[in-house]
Amino acid sequence: MKKRYIVLLIGLLLLLAACTNDSEGEDSASSSDDTITYESENGPVEVPANPERVIVLSTFAGNVLALDTPLVGVDSWSKGNPNYDLEGVEAVSDDNLEKIIELQPDLIIGLSSIKNVDKLKEIAPTVTFTYGQLDYLEQHLEIGKLLNKEEEAQQWIDDFKGRAIDLGDQIREEIGPDATVSVIENFDKELYVFGDNWARGTEILYQEMRLPMPEKVKETALEDGYASLSLEVLPEYVGDYLIVSKNEDSSSSFMDTETFQNIPAVKNGNVFVADATKFYFNDPITLDYQLDFFEENFLP
């Protein structure tokens, strides 16, 4: 009788141990479902599978918004973008660690140039990207992978490319296949002309629509993405059409000068002025806005 009791007791203990192991296994599986491993340019990073409190410290706020992922903090440039719906989202910077801690992020995203990366990693998983290392559509796809929304990102990319190429065909038919286009911006008392990958609509105009840029722009701005100009040489860089990304916080008096007014594109009424705050970036929200802007201005 005593022997049977011992056997039953051992069986009961084994059954209890098995149940405990099953329970632990379930918890482990649940935990792995809550995170994914993202292969960043700096190595693997464990991030939330469904982040709910994201902070973007530079450039990528529009990508996150376009993928319907909640933001709690963004950089000041993004906060000032009228295209973004950021009501209730705080403006933060990479050197305001106390504010970032207060916002309790579960994921932090920024450019590789942001400060305090090691300290930020102690607050939440932090992923950075080097600007220009990926093209603008590859960048959105990477944000999609990071947010566990790669399929949604790819669907938008495919749709956007189709719309941009189609509109480019219509514009070339309207203005002629050889008509050149320039993009400039006034900022901090300087004038800049842009290549084909520095936002301001350049990716759409030059990459997707395949509109040609003036030779002078190719020589000076294509490699670095942009070049600083003086007003005196500006006419050499302006093509048959000119996009002015106008910054209201900087002087735009150059547009009233005789030099500017005598540029053929200006005389011909081929200057389209955009709000720089809406043109700074190249995320899906901004790109859709730019596409509409070009359609409204290039096509009568």
Feature tags:
single chain; 300 residues; Rossmann fold; five-stranded parallel β-sheet; five-stranded mixed β-sheet; 13 helices; 12 strands; globular; disordered N terminus; ABC_transptr_periplasmic_BD; Iron complex transport system substrate-binding protein; Bact_iron-sidero_bind
Provide structural commentary.
- Residues 23-44 are annotated as: Disordered.
- It is found in: Cell membrane.
- One of its GO terms (biological process) is iron coordination entity transport.
- By secondary structure, this protein is of the alpha/beta class.
- It has 2 domains: 35-148, Rossmann fold (3-Layer(aba) Sandwich); 178-298, Rossmann fold.
- The chain is 44% helix and 19% strand.
- The chain is built from 13 helices and 12 strands.
- It has helices spanning 2-33, 61-66, 76-79, 97-102, 117-123, 136-146, 150-175, 202-208, 215-221, 258-261, 264-267, 276-279, 284-298; strands spanning 35-40, 43-48, 54-56, 71-74, 90-91, 107-111, 126-129, 181-187, 190-194, 226-229, 241-246, 271-275.
- Helix 6 runs antiparallel to helix 7 (150-175) and helix 7 (150-175) runs parallel beside helix 13 (284-298).
- The termini are far apart.
